[in-house]
Amino acid sequence: MEEKYLPRIADRVLNFALEASGAVLIEGVKWCGKTRTAEEKAASILYMQDPDKAESYLKAADTKPSFLLKGDTPRLIDEWQTAPVLWDAVRFAIDQRRKKSQFILTGSAVPKDNIVQHTGTGRISRMLMRPMSLFESLESNGSVSLKALFDETADGECVSTLTIEELAFVLARGGWPASIGEKESVALKLAHDYTEAVINIDISKVDDVEKNPARVRALMRSLARNVSTMATIATIHGDISANEELVSEKTISVYLNALRRIFVVEDLSAWGPAMRSKTALRTSSKRHFTDPSIATAVLRATPEKLLQDFNTFGLLFESMCVRDLRVYANAIDGEVFHFRDKSGLEADAIIHLGDGRWGAIEVKMGAKEIETAAENLKKLREKINTDKMKEPSFLMVLTATEFGYRRDDGVYIVPIGCLRD
Fold this sequence. Notes:
Layout: H1 9-20, E1 23-28, H2 34-41, E2 44-47, H3 54-63, E3 75-78, H4 85-97, E4 103-107, E5 124-129, E6 144-145, H5 146-151, E7 158-159, H6 164-173, H7 184-205, H8 213-225, H9 233-243, H10 249-261, H11 292-299, H12 303-308, H13 310-330, E8 334-340, E9 346-353, E10 358-364, H14 370-383, E11 394-399, E12 403-406, E13 412-415, E14 419-420
Parallel strand pairs: 1-4, 1-5, 2-3, 3-4, 6-14, 10-11, 11-13
Antiparallel strand pairs: 7-12, 8-9, 9-10, 12-13
């Protein structure tokens, strides 16, 4: 029986990108569904890693790459970086055809520097695809829209049916399409198997430089222990040295770069707004995996263990919320940042749209923390220089609770099980 395709927010992003460009490159972590989403749109497909044909495809790419571009459009070229010459061939074909929607390229790794002659600017549009959000995996009912919050048309009233036990499971399972709908033991094993493949195979294949699996594991465990924090390389080095084995800071940087190139880690950059005073802002990024299940897998943190350690659960819950916010924001031309000044005032997420609108979000699991979070968000609003920036479109506390509503002071309380793009 053919696997049912669950619609993705990326479907709309891809459709718009194809309308505007000759080709679209879909990048993202392996197993997040890039190929499956591209297949839904493609009229013909070239699987560069087909074991029966890969060798002949590579020979064709070396001798006459244009041969591989023949086919109905849009033509999908899956894992194009296997034969990097295809990038320049696609760019040249677009120049010759002078038409939109000609090619879709997918890639699970950023290729080595200087392997293509041209950037593709003006011909090839890029989109980053991430694992599934809770709305895409049908676990969020989507009753509160991020777009509506920015348009100031949301009333905020909603009810989440996700229990704390279910949240622990979906966090540890992750947003991997192949695991959606599987029973718990199978879904958790899939997340574990993916993480083991990263440690033992994928991180070395990205640049053909052998990595020590024990050191990769030590680094990833440290990143997992420091998820949702601004841990520096020195902090991570000290953590590894205290808990695992000796790894130099240089090796940590090299390994981190390799993990970025295969989209396994995606740190959250700091936001730099115009402030009313000369308040010093912290510019360090927050540590995040592209999916929180990578952290739980490398820590061997089952849903049951998360429920016994709410400190770790809270940090990983924040990371899951960041994943979802990135998926939702991407669909409305937005980026996600974090904010923290030297006084300790912070917002776990700032969503900044291309047109200058922005919203501030604090992530809190329990109802007891909502009041403090709301007050912090209001303090942040007062510190922003609105002569140079717009007023925030909304202030939100994103929670693991059941009920959502708009407070009398205008702050939205939204369960993650109710949010969508």
